Amino acid sequence: MANPNIKFLVVDDFSTMRRIVRNLLKELGYTNVEEAEDGLMGLNMLKNGDFEFVVSDWNMPNMDGLTMLQNIRADPRLSKLPVLMVTAEAKKENIIAAAQAGANGYVVKPFTAATLEEKLGKIFEKLEKAGG
Amino acid sequence: MTNESIKHSAIEASSPMINPQEEVINRIGHLTRSLHDSLRELGFDKLLETAANDIPDARDRLKYVARMTQQAAERVLNATDIANPLQEEIAEGAAGLKTQWTAIKATSSLKSDYDKVVDETLTYLGKTIESTSATKAQLMDIMMAQDFQDLTGQVIKKVTEIAQSIEQQLVQVLIDFTPGAPTVAKEADNGLMNGPQIAPEAAPELVVANQEQVDDLLDSLGF
User: Fold this and answer.
1) In sequence order, which ranges of B108-178 are alpha helices (DSSP H)?
2) Best residue in B69, B133, B138, B150 to probe A by mutation, most A CBs within 10 Å?
3) ipTM surpassing 0.85, yes or no?
4) Cα separation of B157 and B177, whole Å?
5) b vs e for A20-32, b when ≥16 Cβ sit within 10 Å of the residue's Cβ?
6) Which of A86, B93, B108, B164 could cysteine-pair with A107, CB 3.0–4.6 Å?
7) Cis status, amide bond into B182, omega within 30 of 0
8) How many other CB atoms sit within 10 Å of the CB of residue B53?
């Protein structure tokens, strides 16, 4: 497990899903979690906060998750931020587009706690390798 | 020869150099007019009116479904939020008791009967720890089951959008095919050119709903 104080931002327009992801993260030992209800709010929070990890939905009003991801990658201060997409969009072209935009992982809804844990683990593993 | 073809040949005769595009528009105009008249004769304008009224109702129902499912999801999530710490407390208490009983058993010189009860207690406490952690896993499952709200919510949102777009289209058809209503009625409901009343029962003191009421009114005025 990575640093338990790592600061997460969960971006989803459905409050139910935000709570589920927050509870799952808590269960995995991560309690420093904040929430945003769309990409625009998420991006603003990221620009003004010291977030270290983003879990984001795709289909949201105001700004979708892919656009938010592209904005993150285009911002020199945020470009290295790990982003895990958790979305109901299950078309191949969606997954390819997310990967091309620089997503660190892609989880399709509905998902299990084990899947989220595994994807988070993989991302942390890669980050550690890249960092060390 | 029909009126239509007489007009047609008259146009051709009077302007032999007519633009073919104008000709097409002209024909579409005639078709639209006859479609409009047919729809009216068949009572389709009333049907369209009903459809346009029904769709907001369907939309409201879908919104209701979305709201209720969200409430249900939140209720269960609240329950798990409450139950989880309780379960943790029970597990911690049992673990503490187990440690204490183990210590007493090791240091005291007591009867074998007492030892038996102690063993049973320890077994029970061990099982309690197991079952509380199993309950916790079940609570996690309950939480995960609520992801339906996100998924059905997305579908319902789409259906609502579709319903909304159909409604707008139908309303546009009504506006296009019923000159003067309902926009004109709203704009100038104090004037004398308001066109057909879309909802006469909404203002019975101002508007009549059927021919009977028209006749009654005329009677009361002495006509």
Assistant:
1) 112-145, 148-177
2) B150
3) no
4) 30
5) bbbbbbeebebee
6) A86
7) yes
8) 14
Pick from A27, A88, A109: CB nearest B140? A27
Angle (CA) B82 B86 B91, round 5°: 150
pTM (2 decimals)? 0.63
List per-residue pLDDT tens for chain B, 223 residues long: 444 444 444 444 444 556 777 888 888 888 877 777 777 776 667 767 777 777 777 777 777 878 878 888 888 888 888 888 888 888 888 888 888 888 877 876 667 767 877 888 888 888 888 888 888 888 888 888 888 888 888 878 777 777 777 777 777 777 777 665 554 444 444 454 443 443 446 666 666 565 656 566 555 655 5
**CB < 8 Å to A113, chain B:** 140, 144
Count of CB pairs separated by less than 8 Å, A with B: 45
